Amino acid sequence: MLATIRERQGRVDEAVALLGTRNVTSVNGRDQLADLLARHDRTGELRAYAVTEELGYAARCLAELLEERGDVEGAIAAYRQADEPAAYDPNSAVQLAQLLVRHGRGNDAPEI
């Protein structure tokens, strides 16, 4: 809650720092830190966070952001992150398949 207040005050760096000190930043299937980074176009930090966040929430947030921007290849890469925890998440595989279908690349799904 304190991070939300800091963000509303325009103190985004402080909000990021607060959430960065927590062991768990996910609530109801969303990751507060990942969402905060996406809202403030901090893509580099979001990418770095997605590599370390074990539940795959940050990777999903990154993929959603990239897809919204028209970077489908980047979104695919966010879900695939070879040798990273999110790459083994069955939910990520389903989300990746859905992304491919949305962009007319359903035939790529079995290969990926």
Outline of this structure?
With 112 residues, the protein is mainly α. Helices cover 61% and strands 4% of the residues.
Structure commentary:
The protein has 112 residues and is mainly α. The chain is built from 7 helices and 2 strands; from the N terminus they run ααββααααα. It has a two-stranded antiparallel ribbon with strand order 1-2. Helix 2 packs antiparallel against helix 3 and helix 3 packs antiparallel against helix 4. The longest helix is centred in the last third of the chain and has 13 residues. The mean pLDDT is 84.
Task: Give keywords.
single chain; 112 residues; mainly alpha; two-stranded antiparallel ribbon; 7 helices; elongated
Topology:
Layout: H1 2-8, H2 12-20, E1 26-27, E2 30-31, H3 32-39, H4 43-52, H5 57-68, H6 72-80, H7 90-102
Antiparallel strand pairs: 1-2
Helix pairs in contact: 1-2, 2-3, 3-4, 3-5, 4-5, 5-6, 6-7
- Number of separate strands: 2
Instruction: Estimate what percentage of residues fall within beta strands.
Output: under 5%
Pairing-aware structural class of the strands and helices? mainly alpha
Number of helices: 7
Topology pattern, helix = H, strand = E: HHEEHHHHH
Report the radius of gyration as a whole number of Å. 14 Å
